[in-house]
Amino acid sequence: MTTPTATNVAQGDAHVDVQAGVVHGDINFYRLPPNPSPEEQFAFALKYLDARVRDQACELIEKAVAGGYVTTEVQFYRLIALLSGRTLRQLASEELDRLTAICASLPHLDDHDEWTAGLKAIIHLLAPVSAAETDLVVKEIDALNRRQRDAIYGHLEALLEGAMQEEMWRKSVALADSQRTAEDRFNRVWKFFHPTPAQPRTLPVQPAAVALRDWLRAGAGAAVFTLAVVQMIVLVAARGTLDPFLGLLAALVGLAAFCVGGADRYYRGTRLRAKEAQIRPPQQRRREAPPGGFARKVDRLFDRYFRRYVPEGTDRAYWLDQTAGIRRHLRDEVVELYREQRIDAERVAWLVRHLVGDVRGQWERDTLTSYRQQLRNPARTTALHVGGLALLAAGSLWAVPAVVTSAPLSGTCWFVLAVASAVPAVRSSFRIVAEHRRVADDQAERNDKDTARWAAYHRWCHKLSDQPSDTEMATWLEGDRKVLVDQAMQQYRLRPSQVIAHAFIEAPAPSCKKARYPQGPWRYSRYRLLLFLLTDDGVRQVNIDLDFETSASRTTQRLNYRFDAVAAVRIDGIATRQQAFELTLFNGEPISIQVSDPDNGTLQHDENPTKIAELSLDAAGLSHTLHVLEGIAAEGKEWVKHRRDRADERLANLASAIRGLLD
Fold it and tell me: What is the pTM of this model?
């Protein structure tokens, strides 16, 4: 086989723009209780193992064993966690020593419980397996219960060499391919990255705001008007005739009818103008909100959903133009409701969709301006307003001459005073009545909005109720990774037995979403993967963009280089901030990719930022990959030979311990 030449490409992806993270899920899923018992430590170790956080799982299992919790189930998972994803020759010296010690500490495997059967299967894998024995070992594994079988095929697929490795890899890839689409992944995975919806709110109803001058005018005017009317009655009574009394009574009845009809007419007019102002397109362009702020993000949400939810049969441009006013009104309401809560705009995206969908529904039902019909003056109001005014005028013409003739000077003064006090009193009373009716109607509208929003909120929460667990996310990601490794080996026409080791550098892709459980590793909606396949001839590197929400992948680059072409491997940056992986080849620019990003204020009160960063890098397999690449950078091709020689010496001790168990 021709030795591949060294190729260097400088990657321009050192900067990764990751959207604000989401921390949600079961808050106690990864949170150990204070002073945990060995049983609790083991239970949490299994959760981390399922999440592919192998180092943390090993640590917790060893603590459980040190605490005296040693069962065949514990020993089974102790071996799984130690050997996960690696060959025996990839284990460090101290890890081989631990493996030997574990095997030496196992009781004779002659019991017949299910976990002893699982331990026997792993021990058979650790023992040298001939080609003729391959089928027997595979049948032994297939006879295990599903949990043990999936653990072995899911974690120990790379453990062996030769024909057994080929069969284990085939089984492992088949399992991964079925698991990566299981549990309705593509309809649920996006929900993991969706933030917890903010509960609905509605603006409180503004209390009645009546100016002091209106109260004074209404009160003083009513008092003065009453005094003037009484004095006119006294003057009419001095005449001793009944007709003027009937005229005054008609005028007062007309005034009362005019006030009732006029107050209703005034309120409907003011209410209509307020409603029209809410949907009227803005007269001038408003200055944009500051970039990156909550208000700007809400602007983008409304723009996005108004462009998406266009009524059927309506031109988008016309729709956007006609709803500019109501869009602005609704946007201002949402910003006012949630600005002070310091929440992410995506948490109110459900409310924006509900509001936009409601506007579209009203548009399609032609009820967007139904308030115009509702606020139109009814015949009763017009009759009271016009008829009252006519009766007031007729009564005044009937009674006033009698008042004036009874006492020309005082009668005239009392009439003028009655008119002068009634006009401002009536106007102020219209405003007072309208303001109180406004409060009542606003409260009714608020109650309707509140009911509709809570219903929409509960519908959305129900839609998110089957949000995948972190374990499911880890299983899907591991399935994707394993299938990608298999595809890469097929592209290079490599058999699993020809690959000394494979390793990943896993990083968030630009503009991806991210989320995690408390005390858990970050998961991303899109990944940028660097896959390294180590063979006797050198390194095959495949750069892959993975859309985790759709499982679609795209190979962006393939590189081949010799072991001795690797000059240096390093991680730059602090664990709690941005970290970048850098691989330097002798004849080119370094290959760099950002592997972590800061938490951006998502840490909870009891979370350690360094620990969270370590968990995320552990889940990404970075420590294992660095160990392999750093060894290559230090020793070149000799690293492979020396590693095998050193491992073979240790494996001889392991073989004797295994023979004692199988005898």
Answer: 0.80
